[in-house]
């Protein structure tokens, strides 16, 4: 029940008017998912393909373009999983390749392909699944 002075109604109006947000993103980013015709495995395979090509070529600009195209066309609501795949790949690589992946993540962030919330969610997912 509400209070007689109407404070519950005012509080709910104020809280309801503000979009919910955290360091992990807003409600829209947190609710995003893969396109209906994709599985997580297919998505990860596609991301790993771009990462593997980048690690072989060392062409960061090409990798940035590939991820930008991928994000716009297919993965806009699931970019945190790009960070997860990149971080997992980095853990399996040499120091030089880890540096390349760190550089790629930095560039993806600079180009606003991966925002801070996507990166934070990627790290959080990785930590939650650590074995």
Automatic annotation (TrEMBL):
Positions of region (Disordered): 1-29
Entry-linked Pfam families: MA3
Stored PROSITE patterns: MI (PS51366)
InterPro entries referenced in this protein's UniProt entry, alphabetically: ARM-type_fold (IPR016024), Initiation_fac_eIF4g_MI (IPR003891)
Ranges where the MI domain occurs: 42-131
Comp. bias regions, Polar residues: 8-24
Top-rank lineage group of the source organism: Eukaryota
Name this polypeptide is given: MI domain-containing protein
Source organism of this protein record: Polarella glacialis (Dinoflagellate)
Classification lineage: Eukaryota, Sar, Alveolata, Dinophyceae, Suessiales
